[in-house]
Amino acid sequence: MMITTKGKKMYIGGKWVDKDETIDVRDPQDNSLITTVPSASKEDMLNTIKMGEEGVAIAAKMPVHERISVLNKSANYVEKYADLFANTIASEGSKTIKEARGEVTRCIETLRISAEEARRINGETIPFDQMPGSENRVGYYYQFPIGLIAAITPFNDPLNLVAHKIGPAIASGNAIIVKPATMTPLSALLLAEAFDYAGLPNKVLSVITGKGSEIGDVLVTHPAVRLVSFTGGLDTGEAIAKKAGLKKISMELGSNSPVIVLRDAQIEEAVNSTVSGAFWAVGQNCLGVQRIFIHDDVYEPFTNKFVQRTEQYKTGNKKDERTDMGPLISEREAIRVEEWVNEALEEGAELLTGGYRDGAFYAPTVLTNVSPNAKIAKEEIFGPVVILFKVTTLDEAIEYANHVNYGLQAGIFTQNIQQAFSTIGQLEVGGILVNDSSDYRIDGMPFGGVKGSGIGREGVKFSIQNMVEPKMVQFKL
Ligand code: NAP
Predict the structure, then answer these.
(1) Which of 10, 103, 156 to mutate to test the pocket of ligand 1 (most atoms within 8 A of CB)?
(2) If you take atom 2 of ligand 1, which residue's CA is the nearest one?
(3) What is residue 6's predicted lDDT score, i.e. its pLDDT?
(4) Is the CB of 220 under 6 A from ligand 1?
(5) What is the pLDDT of residue 8?
(6) Stretch 145-171: mean pLDDT
(7) Residue nearest to atom 42 of ligand 1 (CA)
(8) Catalytic residues
(9) Which residues contact 346 (CB under 8 A, 6 or more apart)?
(10) Ligand 1 mean position to 338 CA, how many Å?
(11) How much is the pLDDT for 7?
(12) What pTM does this model have?
C-alpha cells in the first residue's frame, strides 16, 4: 500500500501509527487538501525518543553488509516508484514535476552513495613510539556510531534533504528520528516506507509528524539525542543551537548567494545559468542566486539578456511538463515576498520585470538600483527575486558579496584564472563555482556554509564524519 493510506500515519520505531489529532497537508497551488498526517504531541515525541534509545543498540549491531543491503534496497524502492515520489513532491511542495523528478534522482544517488560510504568508515593505527617511553605500546582507533540522531528538515527539498540525514545515519550505524517540515511531510513518510520495505530493523528509524514549535524542544533538548542535524532557516537554527545543550549540532541554514560576472565572462552562459539559479524551485533554494554583481562594461548586455530570458520563464501548473516555475509554498510566503519587493521599490529600487502576485504565485522578478544595505540585499528572500548590481572592480564585487551574514555558495564568471583564484581565496563561503552560478551541488561533495549559513558539512561522507566518534584503543606490551 502506498502513500494514499500511509500519509495518514506516521512511522514510529517501525510501526505505522495514526492519531485523532491531525494536520492538513495541502497543495499550495490551489490549497486543496491532499491528506492529513498525525499531529504528534510532546508525549508522542518522548515515546519516539524512548524507541530511538532502544534503536541505538540495534543499529550499532547491524553488520556493515546489512546496512549496505538496506540502503541499496531502499534506493531500488525509490527508483521503482520514482513517479509516485516525484508526484508526491510536486503535490505537497512547490516544485514543478520536472524539478521533482530531479530531486528523486538525487535521492536515489544519496542512498547509493550512503551504501558505498558504509564500507569506508575506517580508523588508523597510531605510532606510539613517537613519544619516548611509549615504545612498548601499540594502538589504533576505530569509529563508533554516536547513538541517537535528531534530524529536522525544511519544506523546500522534502525528499532528498531527508535522505541526506537518514542515509549517512544508517550507513554509520546510528538510530535516527526525523521531524519533517509540517507543510511537506509526505515525501519523508514515503521514504520511511522505502526503509520499511528494505528491512531496516524496527526502532532504528522514526518519522514523526507534528509542529516544530510544539514538539521540537522535547527532541532537541533530550539528553539521549547525541546530534541535532538541522536544515532550515537561520532563526530556527539559532534558537535550536541555544537550547540543544551538550550535544553535537549540524546546521545547514540559508543564504542570499552572490554571483560575480566579470567583463571577460561568457555572457550567454552566465545569463542562462544565473536565471536558472535564481528561479529554480521558485527561488526557495538555499543555494539560489539572489545577488549578481556585474562589471560595468558588460552590465547592459547582461541585464538585457537576463530580463529577456526571465520573461520567457513559464509560471503555472506544477504538474504541466512545460512549466518552469510553480507557486511558493503558501500564499502567506508569496505575500511576504511581495512586501519585501514593495519595500525595496519604496526605497528607490527599479523593477526590471515581474513584481506581481497571484495567490501563492509570484512572478520571476528582477530588481536593480538596490542599496547593498537594503533588507532585500542583506537577508534571504527565499523567493523568485534577484538583484542586479553594477560594479567597476572585482574588489568592489567581493566586498559587497561578503557584506552579509551568510556564506553558503557563490559563483564567478571569468576567463581569467588569476581573478578566479583571487576570488576563491577572498569570498567568505563554503563553496565556489567558477563559470557557474551558486546553484549546483552533487550529493557526494562537502556542502555547508560559514557565518549565518551554518555549522558543519553535509554530503554523505561529510555527514558521516559528524555521526561517529573515534574510540582509541591501546595495548601495553
Ligand atoms: P524553518 O521554518 O526553519 O523550518 C525547518 C524545520 O524546523 C521544520 O521542520 C520546522 O517544523 C522545524 N522547526 C520549527 N520550529 C522548531 C523548533 N522550535 N524546534 C525544532 N524544530 C523546529 O525552515 P523552512 O522554511 O522549512 O525552510 C527554509 C529554510 O531552510 C531557508 O532558510 C533555506 O535556506 C534553508 N535551507 C537550507 C539548506 C542547506 O542545506 N543549507 C537546504 C534547504 C533549505 P515546522 O514545519 O513544523 O514548523
Answers:
(1) 156
(2) 233
(3) 57
(4) yes
(5) 86
(6) 98
(7) 286
(8) 252, 286
(9) none
(10) 21
(11) 62
(12) 0.97
